[in-house]
Design goal:
Layout (H helix, E strand, L loop, with lengths): L1 H17 L4 H7 L5 H12 L3 H6 L1
Length: 56
């Protein structure tokens, strides 16, 4: 399960830094049920919100 989380976070980081997709679109691309769940998942695994990561 750990490697799946690592892969999903790596993909999310790539999309946040290298695309113009909004958070909602990224959460859909990664098959999250909704943007809120993606937001919580990303923060749990990185310590940052998706917006904080994108703007860092």
């Amino acid at each position: 399960m750990d490697w799946i989380d690592q892969y999903v976070i790596l993909e999310a980081k790539q999309m946040l830094k290298h695309s113009d997709l909004c958070i909602k679109e990224i959460s859909e691309e990664l098959n999250f049920p909704n943007p809120s769940f993606f937001f919580k998942y990303f923060k749990k695994h990185t310590g940052l919100t998706p917006n904080q990561y994108r703007n860092s």
